[in-house]
């Protein structure tokens, strides 16, 4: 339910979404996330609380929607001229972002959402952009699933469940494994 | 803080822990987890709420401690006679357990704990038991970290963030990758 499809861009519905998202982002900067409430967000966004409940269901779903929207990258993955270089740049940035406080909060919010699978869809889209650059180059390309399993999964798993974060050297080793035919 | 070290097994402290853990397990079977409270647990366990707060800090930390205790396996990983076979048996059981409702709740609770890293310590211990069986067998053995990155991480990541669960065939492919020298 987080993102309704078929909305006219710039229509009333899109404007409501933008103003509610923006209110959430502002409030999260101003105060503790546990103290943010739906009526507060509604007041800031200039909508009624029932608009929010109708569209997002509850606060957890709304926070997750905002977190997912933040995940959509502003720009294409860096183009370094080689597949290995592009994957290194992408994986290092992903590790940085997910290790940060906003990244950790985002992972928590996304797990509470009703569409956590959207996360892998976004990651897959970014990785596909990288792979598409090297189609027809003659080199064997890994699948998107392989890259998600071997790069994104260990990065996130280590942040969530281990005492030691992933080191850059380890990330580079995983990229070499992923690139093996 | 979840687990204090140096406790005499069977001492007063160990008995308090066992009775509080047991009260939590009972209550989680009887009612919604969101409705379980510290005073309720204390009453069931025959201790005061302040005993619980002093020892665990808060309800989230206590639930996480119980979840981690559940993770400690009752028995050694299955011994099938080959490294590949042992890893398959272990990984398939891990996928099953983590995909289940109790497994998902456990992952959520562990993330709220102050010692989520204990999770990887437990996994590492199980995998080391398997590897120790094949030391000196002449075959190249993967490291525990490699097995965690290539088997445990994708299994959990897919459960938490993807729409499609890991398929057994995919798990077997990851085991082949992990076994490559």
From TrEMBL, chains A, B:
Its Gene Ontology molecular function terms? Answer: DNA-binding transcription factor activity; transcription cis-regulatory region binding
Residue spans binding DNA: 37-56
A Pfam family of this chain:
TetR_C_11
Keyword Transcription belongs to the record: yes
Is Magnesium there in the keyword field?
Answer: no
Domain HTH tetR-type, first and last residues per copy: 14-74
Top-level taxon = Bacteria
Q: What UniProt keywords apply to this chain's record, in alphabetical order? A: DNA-binding, Transcription, Transcription regulation
Mind telling me what this protein is named? Answer: Regulatory protein, tetR family
Q: Which species? A: Pseudomonas brenneri
């Amino acid at each position: 339910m987080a993102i309704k499809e078929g909305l006219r861009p710039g229509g009333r519905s899109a404007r409501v979404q933008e103003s509610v998202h923006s209110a959430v982002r502002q409030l999260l900067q101003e105060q503790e996330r546990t103290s943010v409430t739906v009526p507060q967000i509604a007041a800031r966004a200039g909508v009624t609380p029932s608009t929010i409940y109708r569209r997002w269901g509850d606060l957890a779903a709304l926070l997750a929607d905002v977190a997912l929207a933040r995940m959509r990258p502003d720009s294409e993955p860096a183009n370094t001229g080689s597949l290995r270089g592009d994957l290194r740049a992408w994986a290092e940035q992903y590790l940085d972002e997910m290790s940060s406080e906003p990244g950790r909060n985002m992972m928590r919010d996304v797990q509470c959402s009703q569409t956590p699978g959207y996360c892998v869809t976004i990651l897959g889209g970014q990785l596909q952009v990288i792979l598409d650059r090297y189609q027809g180059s003659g080199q064997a390309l890994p699948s998107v699933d392989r890259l998600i399993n071997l790069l994104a999964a260990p990065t996130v798993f280590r942040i969530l469940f281990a005492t030691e974060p992933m080191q850059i050297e380890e990330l580079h080793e995983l990229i070499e494994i992923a690139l093996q035919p």
